[in-house]
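Appendix B, example 12.
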Amino acid sequence: MSIKAKKLSLIRLFGAALILISLFSSLFLDFFVLNNWLLFLLIIFFNLPWMILSIGLKFEMNYLRNNLLKISITLGILSIIIAIIGILIDLVTSTLFIVVLLSNFLLLICWHYSPSIYKKEKMWAIIGGVSYAILTIIFILNILIYLFGILTGLIPILLLSLGILLILSMELIMNRKGLLNYV
């Protein structure tokens, strides 16, 4: 790999890091959106196993690759149970709780697939990021703006947008120079 390709790849990696920071900032702000410690812990317990699975898949762990279907089904069932418990804990904010769970999961999908060179996975990253932004703008942003102001409310969306922009622009440059080919 040439020095130019390494620099552009590092910028792509920085874009993925920005998306991960966006995920953590979104998780942090979710506590204030829901205003309930128990629901916040459920959100952490919902996202943590999926995050560990995603990191394990990025590091090519054979056990996870070989048992991905079983692990995904188990985590899916666990996620549904956590969502039901969250709904039963606080019926008033149940819709907001489900939206927060879904938006964070979409952001995790965006982060997981964003550095991929496969077209289908890249589309999943873009769909996850755009869906996260739409859900956040419609359901969560007004609460964050009310609590913290417009700048703090927009931090996760701005970091996500900047991360996706960096990744896609560097890939476009690398593709034009023949340093990257999509599969």
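Residues 3-176 form one domain. Helices lie at 3-34, 37-58, 62-66, 68-89, 94-113, 119-148, 150-176.
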